[in-house]
Structures are given as structure tokens and as C-alpha cells.
């Protein structure tokens, strides 16, 4: 039975038609996955359904009735709840306080009934199998449990339709499996689930049907039993995509990067790195895995000279760094693909040509006697725009006017073209579509084959396992384990990411 129906939904922003007459039918108790490249219109459609945006055209029908959704409160009244990719919890509140926030039980019509809130939260968590301590402070519980709190918030308000936006992006494999059990249980109780994701393996394992969006339009709605990753990727991109990463055995050389006992503080002044020591060799990719917030960002910033060290040493090509600043690091031969391409990787008002020489603007051939050589800058830009397929292929377009994928290509072109011996690649495919991700993988593997030492930091465990030769897991700022990527399993990595030591280490 059709429970939720979208009819001809359209939404435009200046210069962009995000949703173009989208029509979907979702049955009661169904898990419908919504997939598509970045910019395909998924988030806009979900924001319309949850009341954050209003459509320019179209209708939403719920349980056979025309719905009027002009705000999130309207959506909640219609029993629609959305769990956002970035949680909206109050860290210093307890689990129970977060669950009832905005709809608190009271005594004498004015005083918060805290015991009542705890009781309701406990009953709700037990009913739906989302075990979490109602009295725990949110900032003290793991990310997976925080997500449970977000789901409980929507269920507390009586949600019959749940929108889950990239729900596994910060979860370990074990936490993902627990989430999937919850989704199946909610579905069996008649809850309608919209599962928004870019991870095709996951949607194939959890959804009943999959709707594919491309350029704001529905390109197909398929049953899980009748499709596969390759067909879904083709619908998403509009062409065949190579999904399997094929890499030759590593030709491992000398140690090019070594850290000894690195310690660094995070932005809150707390110790984020607690004595990290590692070695990175020529011709290999060393993957750094871990749940977000376990020291990955601080490690990258320490290695690239962007964060002060409290203790420890960094050695590049057997030379110890002395100044620990970005200029010295780059001069010693370290390239950096930052996790935030707009904040750290590009000067958005600058042209593509100027962004392609950042960090080398004072060097030959781009500068002579303190003056920029515009002819050399333009010639170099044209070569790299062609080589890295940057679109539009115009050196004078401002970086802010490029898509995310093409902004990333500019950074790759700048960092890889000069063949640095070491590359720090932090979240290199974050926010990229399938096609752009494929391109990034090709370039990193090409650099590896040419002898570049690559430190890959990613929250995407599949990416880490596919590209890496060795994998190190960070947990609370410490190295919890090191594995050969060819022998590593998701289960073992997931346990390490949760802080569980390897069996052989425990016995030792």
C-alpha cells in the first residue's frame, strides 16, 4: 500500500534546478534508498519532505491525504522525522534531555519532569532495541550511540516516516550492522524509511528498492533483487564506471617519512595525539583508519606544519624537521591534499591558473627576480588542465565557480604534477561523486606506482581497504593496531576502531 507519494516535486535555486519534477511512491514499512552523485538533488528533496524547504511545484501525499509542509514542525506533526548526517544534539545534555527537548514532560505545567523524561527514554530505547543509558551525558558516549539518540528523538515524537541522511558515514562496521538491525526492526513495525547514501554496497544490503537521482531527475527506481553496483553506478553517472580498485603489488623502497612519539593538542586544548610513531616508505600507501575525532585531523596538521607539536619528531628523507611550518614541510618534498578543499586547499577567488601554483609562486619558472612570469603560469595551467581533465577547461575561471569534483582535480594537479616524494592525502574523495572518485583513485595509484609514498587518511573504510598496502588504526590519539591491507577484514578493523585490541596483542 502506498503510504508516501511525491508528485512532480520541483525546486530551483539561482542558476540551479535541484529537483526537476520528481515523482516517487513509497509503501508503508518499506526501506527506500535514495542514491545519486553530489548535486543530484537528494538532500534538497529530503529537506522539502522534512519542511526545511518548500517546493516550487508539486505535491506531497501522506496516507492518501494531501499534505501541507511549510516548516519542520509541520513535518513533525505529519509524523516525519529526519536524522541528519551531522547530529543536532546538545553535547552537555543527557540522553533523556536530548530526546525530549522541545517536547518535555512537565510537572505542575511548568517544571521539567526529569524522572519522567528518563523513564520515557528508557521505555522507548527498550521497545526499539536502541540500548543507551538515558542518564549519560551525550558528549561522553560513542558516536554510534549518539546516532541512536537522534533516532529516538524522532520516534519520541511519533515519527512514522524516518529520513536517514548518510547514516553510516561516522560508524564502524559493527555499529553499521547494529543500525541495520534497527532499520529492519523499524520497518517490520510499519515505519517507512528513506535511506540516503552514496555507499552502494550498503543500500543493496538494507533497502527494498533504490531510487537513483541524476541532475535533479529520477533516472530509475529498481528493486534490490534486480540490480547490482555496476548498474546503479551507471544510472548515477550516466556511463560505465570502474568500481573495483586494481593495484599492482607495491614496490616498497626506503623510509621517506617517519614520526617518533608525536604529541599534539586539539582545538579544545586536550591531548589529541598521544605518542604516535610510524614509518612511510616509497611506493606504498599507508592508510589511517578510525572513527572521526580520534586524532586523524591533528596528525595531518602536525605532519604538514599546520599544528604545533607538544612533543615528538618528524623525519623526512632521514632529515629531522626543525621549524615545523608548512613552508619547510613543502620545501622538504611533502605534498598535501587537505580534507577541506575550500578552507585549506584553494583560494576560491583566485583563478584556476593561480591556484595551480600556490606554494610555488616564488619559485622558478613561475617567478623571476620577485616578479611573476604570467606566460609560464598560463602555459603550465593549460598543460595541467588538460592532463587532469579540469572542467570547464579555462585557466582564468575562478576556483569558486568549479564543482567540488573539479576543485579537487585542481588540488590533485597542483600536488601531483611536481612529483613530490611524499603525499598526505586527507579525505581525498569526501563529497565527490562516483566519477570523480574513480579519477582520484587512478591518480593516487599512478603516483604510488611511480614511487611516491602516500599517507591516506579517510573515514571511508572501504576506500582505506581498497587503496592501502598497510593500515594503521587510530583510537583516542594512539595507534591501536597495524595490519596488512591484503589480510585485513572489516570486522577486525571495526573492533580496533572501537578500541578493542587485537587478539594476538592481548595474548602477548
UniProtKB/TrEMBL annotation:
Any one cellular-component term (Gene Ontology): plasma membrane
Pfam families per the UniProt record, alphabetical: ABC_tran
Keyword Repeat tagged: yes
Sample GO molecular function, one term: ATP hydrolysis activity
Alphabetized UniProt keyword annotations: ATP-binding, Cell membrane, Membrane, Nucleotide-binding, Repeat, Sugar transport, Translocase, Transport
Subcellular localization(s) per the UniProt record: Cell membrane
Domain ABC transporter, residue spans: 4-240, 257-501
Topology term for the membrane: Peripheral membrane protein
CDD domains for the chain: ABC_Carb_Monos_I (cd03216), ABC_Carb_Monos_II (cd03215)
Main location, first listed in the record: membrane
PANTHER family linked to this entry: CARBOHYDRATE TRANSPORT ATP-BINDING PROTEIN MG119-RELATED, GUANOSINE IMPORT ATP-BINDING PROTEIN NUPO
Name of this chain's protein: Simple sugar transport system ATP-binding protein
Organism (species): Candidatus Hakubella thermalkaliphila
